[in-house]
Specification:
Oligomer: homodimer
Protein name (chains A, B): ROK family protein
Number of domains of chain A: 2
CATH superfamily of the largest domain in chain A: ATPase, nucleotide binding domain
Helix content of chain A: 40-55%
Radius of gyration of chain A: 20 Å
Shape of chain A: globular
Pfam family, one (chains A, B): ROK
Strand order of the largest sheet of chain A: 3-2-1-4-8
Largest sheet of chain A: 5 strands, mixed
InterPro entries (chains A, B): ATPase_NBD, ROK
CATH topology of the largest domain in chain A: Nucleotidyltransferase, domain 5
CATH architecture of the largest domain in chain A: 2-Layer Sandwich
Family (chains A, B): Belongs to the ROK (NagC/XylR) family.
Chain lengths: 321, 321
């Protein structure tokens, strides 16, 4: 039988999963990344995790067709190099070769968001659609596109940076050096920041009471959701504004990519309808009706597992070619 | 030897060209479309034009591998149907089959702008680039994308509608039913309309003098270029504003598609640096520097012939498959 391994190297955790050839997740293990100890330390840890997965599955190394790895940042999937991953502090790391050397299994890498969206397209909520636009709303806002079943990379593998579309309504400076990038407002960080600013401006809100009760804490996106559910007008305004901005950004992406389906994942997607209702309203207003009528919008189905399953399945395909 | 025929069915003219297998244009003929006489009339005319091309080339019908046809509007290239072409007044016309029946040559159709951009990518100014974003600025604003040598269609073959990205700065209602579409300002029509409005608002301009000298005429984009060259401040303002808007629109497209090259064609592209200088300035400000640094911007090299050469070459490829 034919097995695959998918690995997601995040800023906080490394997650490794063993799947069958259809992407069914059989075993999953998680370890802290400890990226600051250097890439060799992380790769040695991954070697041990792969051995553990083989033991858990009761299978030989030879039964694993390929390892797929998703890492954040800019990736060269053809050369197998992590070009730059800010939150791992990795530059020009030959990730695929280092893992292949340690495990003896053919290894392929790609960007973690692309792998997440690929997982949702192959085994998750976007299954069965030819043209998929997937976004993840977490610390930042990222996107990936699948066109007729194939990932769309663009020049320099840099396509899909929805989070760095500039919006005139957004006043914040972005880590990328520009001002007004969509992800500075549409993200967990962005939601928290907007709420924080409105509270500081003196607006009444239950969030102020929570802050005063725990002055060493700062407002999170989850707090804003909680306040929203208590009909807090400030929290409602922040969610409406964020959803509206996301709708405008997605309108650009829909008009240019013409996806059949948009799949939305990531931690901040937990805000759910608080964010999605104003998003849909704005999106419908901002795209030609022909796009809207044929568009499906779904939330990610696999949540935590989309990345490792996507990595495993993408690597499986690349190993065959 | 192997020949191809490319046909561009426009609102005004039908242009047919005979090329060799490499896309070299050998003969070209042009006739008025007379679309109002109905699609059968146009197809009969095209049959005669194809016969004329065969005679001009001194070749047998059997030497032509395929005919490629570009038509405006929404196309189903797989089924060979022109779904809707407003300026031909065609709905659900089986263009490919009708031309194949009359000529006896395998026929493939596609959207005219995609074929124009494909021509520039295969034989023109964007030759040698893997990821091409092509735009045509004419009566409207249209775009097409080539990704790793292949046309990007998206769901419903509707990708690339750059002209229907909404900009908050644009107050005009668009033919598509939305308000603020980029092409309502960034097009020959849009440039003329902006100039006309400013003149009517009472602003001094040489354009007013020209209008008063020929009151039955209205301002054209070419007039605005001419006034610009005479240092007319109103014309300079219109070109700067239009170029700025185009730069903002392209920034979205670059961030989402990550092209290696942008190729710009269409009649209004004759405005040249008057439009491209402010466009480049805005684009550089509105995209992550990593995109800007690897981006090339060129003007179309084949002008009138890109569409027929692109149609011929695309059909040649499809006939092989």
């Amino acid at each position: 039988m034919d097995f695959l391994i998918g690995i997601d190297i995040g800023g906080t955790n490394v997650v490794c999963g063993l799947t069958d050839a259809s992407g069914k997740l059989l075993h999953k293990i998680k370890q802290p990344t400890e990226a600051l100890r250097g890439s060799d330390y992380v790769f040695d840890k991954i070697k041990c995790m792969v051995d553990e997965l083989l033991a858990l599955g009761g299978i030989q190394r030879e039964a694993v067709r390929a390892i797929g790895v998703g890492t954040p940042g800019f990736i060269d999937p053809d050369k197998g190099i992590t070009l730059f991953a800010g939150n791992l502090r990795w530059t020009q790391v030959p990730t695929a070769e280092e893992i292949r050397k340690r495990t003896g299994i053919p290894t392929y890498i790609d960007n973690d968001v692309r792998m997440y969206v690929y997982g949702e397209a192959v085994c998750g909520a976007a299954q069965g659609y030819e043209h998929v636009l997937g976004i993840t709303i977490g610390t930042g806002l990222a996107a990936a596109v699948i066109n007729q079943g194939k990932l769309y990379y663009g020049g320099g593998y840099m396509a899909g940076e929805l989070g760095h579309i500039i919006m005139p309504e957004i006043p914040y400076t972005c880590g990328c050096g520009m001002r007004g990038c969509l992800e500075t407002a549409v993200s967990a960080t962005g939601i928290a920041r907007q709420a924080q600013e409105l509270v500081q401006s003196g607006r009444p809100s239950i969030l102020r009471e929570w802050l005063e009760a725990a002055p060493d804490k700062s407002i999170t996106a989850a707090d804003v959701s909680k306040a929203y559910d208590q009909h807090d007008s400030l929290a409602i305004e922040v969610m409406n504004h964020t959803g509206m901005l996301l709708g405008k950004g997605l309108a650009n992406a829909v008009t240019l990519y013409s996806p059949d389906v948009i799949v939305i994942g990531g931690g901040a997607a937990l805000a759910g309808e608080r964010l999605f209702a104003p998003m849909r309203e704005q999106l419908q207003q901002s795209v030609y009706h022909g796009y809207w009528e044929r568009l499906t919008i779904v939330t990610a189905a696999m949540i935590d597992d989309a990345g490792i399953v996507g990595s495993a399945m993408a690597a499986g395909n690349r190993a065959i070619q």
